[in-house]
Please model this.
Amino acid sequence: MIYLDNAATSFLKPPAVERAVLRAMRRCASPGRGGYEAAMEAADRVFECRALASELFDCDAENVVFTSNATHALNLAIKTLVKPGGKAVISGFEHNAVVRPLHALGAEVTVAGRKLFDPADTIASFDRAITPETDAVICTHVSNVFGYCLPVEEIAALCWQRGVPFILDASQSAGVLPVSLRALGASFAAMPGHKGLYGPQGTGLLLCGRIPKPLMEGGTGSLSRLAEMPDFLPDRAEAGTQNVAGICGLAAGMRFVKSVGIERILAHEKKICAMLASAIEDTEAKVYTGENQCGVLSIAVPGDCEDFAQTLAENGIAVRAGLHCAPLAHESAGTIDCGTIRFSPSALTSLRDGEAAARTIRSVAKKIASEG
Amino acid sequence: MFQYYFTFRSITGAQRGLRALEGAGVRGAMTRAPKFLSVRGCGYALKVRDPDAAAAAFSYYRVPYEGAYRVDAHGGAAPL
Model:
């Protein structure tokens, strides 16, 4: 199988990730719950992961909160800042992990910046939409459908100037683009551990520029006599035992990202996407490319995108078709009715696999066109 | 003979404290806080030999601690 669905989860992991998970399962008990060796080992490994994240994303180690995925992290952030019935500004490329919590809050949502690969329009649109009454601005760093890299530094600066909290959804950028919580002045940055950071599923991070409101209450191993949750990080947002094995795997994944370097990873992924785009460009498929694009590529085909993806699956190529849990992005790009087929390589996708995938995708596109 | 403890409100705080001690070349070990030092229930502490050097390291690396205590052989604790 040639796996090109890394925007959903990086299925191929560095071998060190699997080793770290196994080691943790054998050696680690509950962190922060005891003074015996296995508890202290767990605490050391968990702190090591926090420290790694704090170095990669430029924040203090205690401001790194472990979550079960980016959706969990975004829920924490959004429900801290947006009041029920409050006002939020979001980009036209947000995932349902942003749209649905806002809907559940009954928030009045303004969608800003719907032009694909047009950062100037995106900035101007946010500039018009953000008002002093805005509870929060939530913006994805990279569209999970089209790979469009949004101008988040400029949007964060607009928020900063107007005293409006900013939440970054770094689901597709963590591990491929620089993310600095401090430089952005963001209230929160949310990211999964299982995509570009190469950790196991069930891991995520919320980087906190302020204290979040807990989504859950429970034991933290600290201030146990108090009925209230601790008022400090990370304990306030980490009720219950953490996913220690997952966190250890995530630490190994982040070490891999550090050792390869995000610039090299991005360049490699973009190179494979360019191969795929060039193989398809003279077929009947519409290829969505632009200057401000990361290693995620979407195409729209004349027939059913799910059929196309199924044919690719039968030919050993794993991709994702449909709306990618981001109907807003498809509305913005005009693909809401047809959906797209998304290709997303990773640092572990070989160039040879990229070439083989390009040949197969081209031949499937041609075959379907001739049958149609 | 006394023992010196710095208490922290969370294990993460104590871990940052331990890194600060390591950074400053000060000896210390993380331990569960003795019950009589963790009045709000469950906590971690750093046990050190040189409390002045430890306090200087925490100050330099901006690591906040909850309390600093001198504990005698009978378990009598006095704030530093």
Remarks:
- Chain A has two domains: 2-10+262-371, 15-260.
- The two ends of chain A are 27 Å apart (CA to CA).
- The CA atoms of residues 2 and 317 of chain A lie 5 Å apart.
